[in-house]
């Protein structure tokens, strides 16, 4: 580590400690060293140059938008057989697995830097592809209503989408209409509202990306706090002639969590002090940041946990009737499925979790308000929820990977063989080790969640003994959830 780097890192760590309440001298965040940061932009100056270039974002978006356009056409005019259609295979096998197994855990919201959905709206809004154009953009530039500046809209939109997951993942045109609808929605929103309002407040994918990116091993943060503090003209917040103010309406100088940072790297372009960094860090660091926690994000955690269990039951369980209901083979059956899903994720999971938190509060004799303890402890559901989705995703990619090379050569299912891979045999890999990987993922999620629950309880209650007592019932809940997922996925 260079002499310059160490003091900078010290200051960054002190800022993290300040927000998480981790006492000086405490070296570990659970089993992970809290002090550890690896500043990629400082170690590799070439990376900073790449990120500062306006071309980087444009080219990435152009590539994904081009592939997306072809896939969308395949969705509308290609074969209706899901596993032979580029759109379904690209979105529900390749993208989903890459997102949950690689992008979110390791690279936070890097997907949002690549995502083609908001590109058209953003280019229209800016009236530019690469260089910043001076003057007013093509937008009314309105601010999103204050009452809706939270995760409730995405929670409800995600729920609405989740109700149709059975047909979404199998029927090509349904996926195509959904994605086209999102592109059009993003355009309309960008013409009315400022910057990436759609991404921040409305994208159903963005909600869980945001919450689970708290677990990620990568972050974008300011480097030296005093540089930001003393820089009166906050370029990253207001923009410059060459670059835009943070498109996600974050204040990069004080940003403490990954939740709403879209990894667009615009703050690298605005900051004349080169004070923004991309750093590797221990996973889950943001879960202990005691700032801006809320019930909206807690409900996001409940929805994702409940949805993972229901999807595992529908897609991997032996219950044919449940599959039929989710696939809308009968109106009555579908209504039972949809209402049970909505009730489970919005009411049952929060209520059961609430009962366990309430017991813990009683047991510990804690005098903090129940809602505060409930909200704070809900963030401990993030590790187990994310690892459950990871375990689920193993069962998506390992048996089905062969469809990917097949549709690359024959995107529309019309019998083409563009790259000589259309004939790749269906050939599941790793089926023997898959249950081991899934159980290992779930156990890791359980251990991580227990650790986070205890740390949050200590942070909220300010007392080790009370924290231990308050954590006992939530740990029982977490163990039960782990057992349920093990049964659904492996049992
Ligand atoms: S928030 Fe949604 S639409 Fe916006 S970049 Fe991320 S995934 Fe794409
Ligand atoms: S802080 Fe804002 S400008 Fe910087 S990378 Fe994140 S979203 Fe982009």
Tell me what you see in this structure:
The chain has 491 residues and is mainly alpha-helical. The protein folds into 2 domains: 38-287, no CATH class; 296-489, no CATH class. It is 62% helix and 3% strand. It has helices at residues 5-20, 40-43, 45-52, 54-77, 86-107, 110-114, 119-126, 152-162, 165-168, 172-192, 197-201, 204-212, 225-230, 235-238, 266-270, 295-316, 320-326, 331-364, 370-378, 381-400, 403-409, 434-461, 464-489; strands at residues 28-29, 32-33, 38-39, 218-222, 276-280. The strands form 2 sheets. The chain has a 3-stranded antiparallel β-sheet. The chain has a two-stranded antiparallel sheet with strand order 1-2. Helix 18 (331-364) runs antiparallel to helix 23. The longest helix has 34 residues, at 331-364. It is globular and about 60 Å long. Residues 1-10 and 15-25 have low confidence and may be disordered. One iron/sulfur cluster is lined by residues 111-112, 115, 117-118, 199, 203, 205-206, 262.
Report a brief summary of the structure.
The protein has helices spanning 5-20, 40-43, 45-52, 54-77, 86-107, 110-114, 119-126, 152-162, 165-168, 172-192, 197-201, 204-212, 225-230, 235-238, 266-270, 295-316, 320-326, 331-364, 370-378, 381-400, 403-409, 434-461, 464-489, and strands at residues 28-29, 32-33, 38-39, 218-222, 276-280. With 491 residues, it is mainly alpha-helical.
